[in-house]
Design goal:
Length: 191
Amino acid sequence: FIMYDEVKHMNAHDWLEKARALEPTMYDFALWSPDEAIYERIQPHSNCGNCYSVAKTFVSTAIGMLRDEGKLDVSDPILRYFGWRRGMDPKWADVTIDHALRHRIGFDEGFLDIDAEDVSAYPTDDYLSMVFDRPLPLEPGSERHYSDAAFYLLARLVERVSGKDVELFTTVYELDDTTDFTAGVEEKDVA
């Protein structure tokens, strides 16, 4: 997303050209302004679903909930929860939960983009093995490379730590009488 104020001098057709240049990472483009409205499908989405990266919000929230419960810390090494695997790149020992949250695992490109790629072409349906078998050409934490693999790994981490999949963990979160939704909110902030 780009803020309108940063590029308000561009017209809708300039925006559309920028969107077309982003293919294959751009699916749909829509722009409404006082002067015009345009929409174009840049590329079709897969049959996997049209939710794209919305799930990352829920995974991040689940990680925060587990942190609040004291069940993990974002500075924890990922392998604390998954263990070492034969043939794994040694750099995996340095990958933390925080690195995954920030897309800084050590990948040099995105992969495991199951909503855009043909999953039938994958060598296995064991996506966790695919993630851990992937070499890490970069030092963990050094560079950001957006990858669905990072959040697939985090979703599996939530499952391991909570004993529930992300959807169930985030929708059936139990609240009790000690839950304070007003913590940190001052009276002047409430309308």
